[in-house]
Structure formats: C-alpha cells, structure tokens
Amino acid sequence: MAAPKRGRRPAGGQGRPGRTLVLILIAMAALTGGMFWSGETTPRLGIDLAGGTTITLKAKAEPGKESAINETNMNTAVGIIERRVNGLGVSEAEVQTQGRENIIVNIPKGTDSEQARKQVGTTAQLYFRPVLAVAPGGPAAPQPSPSASADGKEGDKAKGNPSTAPSGSASTKPSTGATTQGRAVTEGLKAPSPSASASAAADSDKPSDGASQPPKTDPGTPPANADLEKRFAALNCEDPKARSAAGDADRPEDTVIACGKNGADQWEKYILGPAEVDGKDVDDAKGQLDQQRGMWIVTMDFTKSGSKKFEKITGKLATQQPPMNQFAIALDGEVVSAPEVKQALSSNAEISGSFDQDSAQDLGNILSYGALPLSFEEQSVTTVSAALGGEQLRAGLIAGAIGLALVIIYLVVYYRGLALIAILSLMASAVLTYTLMSLLGPAIGFALNLPAVCGAIVAIGITADSFIVYFERVRDEIREGRTLRPAVERAWPRARRTILVSDFVSFLAAAVLFLVTVGKVQGFAFTLGLTTLLDVVVVFFFTKPLMTLAARSKFFGNGHPWSGLDPKRLGVTPPLRRSRRTPAPIDPKEA
Q: What's the average model confidence in pLDDT over 550-556?
C-alpha cells in the first residue's frame, strides 16, 4: 500500500524557524566580538559631535587640462595634505576624497584652525635643491674632544656641517651612474644616512681639533649665514612641529634648512641651497618595473626649459664631493629623496635602488604632482567647539530616545502582545546597527555626525513600518477566518513583497542622495541606506521566524485578549477554520 502523501506546506511556510534565529544570533555575536577585539567599542564621532574643524576642498584644473582631476592625482593630494596636517602635531586627523573632485579634511579639537586652513589650502611646493650639508636629525650635542675608537676610526667626524655625526657606522651612499640616455641612479628613496665615510677631500678640510666646521657650500650658491647655522644646529627633526616650522616662509631663492628620512628610516637634517628646478619643470614621473634588471625604478621627464635647468645643476653637482654632490627633492619643505650625481644629466632621469612597488609609485606620484595644473578651492570651513559638539550629541540621543519611546507606546497600545516581537526586532536591529557603525569607523573611516544620527532616527520608523505591514497581513488572514498558524504563513508572501518594495524605494533614495551630495549630508544618506538593508535582514531572519515560533505558543495561538490577535477584537466569530472548507453536499430532495 502506497504511503500517504504529506500535505503541502502553506505558501511562505518556514519549517525550521529556530535554525534561522540561531544563525542571526551567531552573526550578532560575531559582530559584537569583532567590535571588542578591534578595540572600537563606540562609533567614531564626526567633527560636529566631537568638536573640531572640517574643511571641504574642491579640485580645480587649468583650462584645457581637466583630465588632471583623476583618482591618482586626488589620492596623491590626500597624501600630501596628510603630511601637512601631521606636521601640525595632529594625530587623529582624517583626510579623504569625497566624490570625484572633493577632499574632506577633518581636524579634531585642540588644533589651530587658521593654521590648519593655511596648511591644507595651498598647492604643494616641489623643488630640486642642492645639498650643502647633512647631519643627524636631533639637535646638536656638545662637542667631545677628539679620540680614537677601538677600531682605529675617529670619534666624531663632522660631515661638512655645524653638527657632528656618529662615526663608524658605514652606510650605503646613493650614487649616480649615468648612461647614454642621461639617467640619474640613486640606491634608495631616502636621503643618505650620516656616517664617517665622507671622502678624504671632505675630511682634509676639517680643523685638526675636531671642532665642527661651517657647512660647505657649492661654488655659485650663497653661503649659509650665522642665523641659519644656529637654526640648523638647534633643529630637531624628530619633533613634528619643528619639522613643519623648518620650511615656513622659505622662498625658492633662499638657502634653507629641511628634514628628511634616510634609508634606515631615521631623520636627518639638511642645509639646502636655492632651488634650481621646481615641480613645474617636471613633465612626467612614474614608478615602474625595470624588466631587464628586475627592480622598481622612478623615471622623470623634464620640460624643455626644465631640461636645461636640470643639466646645469647636475653638471655643477657632479664635480663636488659628498654630500655636496647630492640634490634634494623637497616637497613642502621636507626632503623625500636626495640622490647623488656623478655626471651632467638632461631631459630625463631615473632614480633606482631599494624601491618596492608602493614606494616607487609614491615617489613618482609626488614628483608628478608638482608638475600638475591642480589646485584646490576652499568650499566650506566648519569649526565646532567640544562643548557644542557634546550638546548636539546629547540632543540627537534625546531625539532618538523620544522617537523610539513613541513607537514602542504605539505598538503596545495597538498591537499589545505583538509589541514584544516588534521590540525584540528593534533591539536586534539596534545591535546590528551599533556594531557595524563601530566597525566601519576604522575600516572605511565612517564617522557618526549629526545628519547620520538623524538617519538612524528615521530608520526607527522604517523598521517599525515593516513590522506593522506584516502584523496587519496576519490580522487580515485571521479576519478571513483562519487560525494563527496558517495565517502567519499565508500572510508572509504578501507582506514580504510590500516590505521589499518599500525598502527598495528607501534604499534607492539614500543611494541617489549619497551620490549627488557632499559633506555631512552623505552621512545621513549612508546611515539611511545601511539601516534600510539591516531592516530587510532583521525582518527576514529575525521577525518572521520569531513570529512563526510565537504562533505555536498557547498565548498567541489561542488568541489571548492581550496577544493582539484576539479574533473577537478583530471582528471574527468562532469557530476559526484551519484549512479551506469543503462545500456541504446538496440534498437531491432539496434540488
């Protein structure tokens, strides 16, 4: 005898609601654990809530060169602005692109906003300057008396500057090996490290008593004056503020002091001669892989006028002794590279050495940026005090609490027991939203600003609306005479379509708003879009299975007066039907 066929599961039926609930609870626990593991237990606050200054910059290109505004150049500009802001001693500043042509600079409280505007609002200054002297990056120490070390080397050898350098530490000196194409080759991105390996010609010029000597200058460049030597000796390149102040108000024709890192990632200080070539003389520069030698290099092409200038300075430097045979590539007063020169070069040059892909491409972008017709226009500046930011945060939280309380009161009064399911769903949505906002801070730089708080408040209504749609569909099924369990399953397909359409419209509006706006309004759009997606997740994987389990309980299944599903309150006269009724047969006598 054939086994009887099982009845078909009602449309939208869910056979294992408990498994679905367990999955979403595991996901919530994983997000919460990740939040604590990352150490970001609270969402990152925006400037308008934490206090500070927000500067919006818009990129501008010269007429006919609009292509200069592209992703590569914008990212390079972000890196340069970050260097400038860090030079102010700011540790938590954020610089990021927004859209195709905007850069947002968020500087936390405690920073001079006027100084910050000055730093980020000007075009980068790139110069090629001859190196006159190099010394360790710290302030000059008192000179010890000369003494011979155990290995026979002199104790403190100066390197052609008023400060002494430690002896005996051999270092790799950048060198140039020009080819027939006229390429300059250096062995590293960083400036050469100080050592006692200076040439015999340099050593022979030192006083016999071991005292420090004035910086050697290249013939044809102005010698450093006493004030400059004093500033050079006192300069501490390990201090970010001192590094930033070293190049303040320097003009291209001045002899200046600057800081830079060597190949050992240690700070050095320089005396640099007047700029012989500037960034506008560079036609193009890029980091690329040399297939023949299997190493990363940086190539530079100069303009017609730049080629003449570069040939002149390299021809002059090739005749000098270290360190005066080096030219420093200085960006905003900081030395990013200082290669040596061995012969005159002209229209193109190559810098090679211990580059990897990232460092070669970074230097190439920096060199290109100085030649780009790209400047920035200040669109807006907003400064918020810490006290005002705290008040706005409190006001936003109070508004959110009031909105949530009103929604809960409405649910309890109108839906009674069903309000418990809605409140639990709201709590699940809140946990997911909070943990994701906390994790997105360090991941993508998301910061919770006041418009974002408004978006979260609006999301409370969107999420509650999804519950109401489902609850009303269930009630409609009960009004048609069905018991709760089949009503829950039959109501779901119809409610699901309505919820998806409603959330799609909300998400589409948020996406369009995010794409066409800049600044703080994007915070509102991002939060609204995120919470709309989470509403779909919560309704599908939490509210629906929870409702299925509730329908199996006596409190809801039997239609308790406080369940919110009492048939009498819904205008239904028992008995309720559990399945489709079969029409009664017609009596032939009555036909």
A: 88
